[in-house]
Design goal:
single chain; mainly alpha; 5 helices; elongated
Length: 103
């Protein structure tokens, strides 16, 4: 019987912890929103994630990746321009085989 009370005490402490942190309220409100949806989503877990704010964390990651992509594209443009300039400079010093064959 003492083991039962100890586990009940731990459960009660954990429940109070979740309640104090606002987890129970958040879960309840999201589950109620899901329940009240007239057309249930195909993926309930995605619905929960989106409404709990997990999607917000993913969007922050997405924004960082989008910024990295913009930086890489800009760098690629600069490198392509540098490559073009270097090819033009090389043309002046080493004529192509077509130019050499014509001479």
């Amino acid at each position: 019987m003492a083991h039962y009370r100890a586990s009940e005490s731990k459960r009660e402490q954990f429940r109070r912890y979740l309640e104090k942190a606002g987890v129970l309220d958040s879960l309840t409100s999201v589950l109620v929103a899901l329940y009240e949806e007239t057309e249930k989503p195909n993926n309930a877990l995605d619905f929960l994630k989106q409404h709990l704010g997990v999607a917000g964390q993913e969007s922050a990651d997405t924004e960082a990746l989008q910024q990295e992509l913009r930086d890489m594209r800009q760098r690629c443009e600069l490198l392509a321009e540098e490559n073009k300039d270097l090819k033009n400079r090389l043309q002046r010093y080493e004529p192509t085989q077509e130019d050499g064959a014509a001479e």
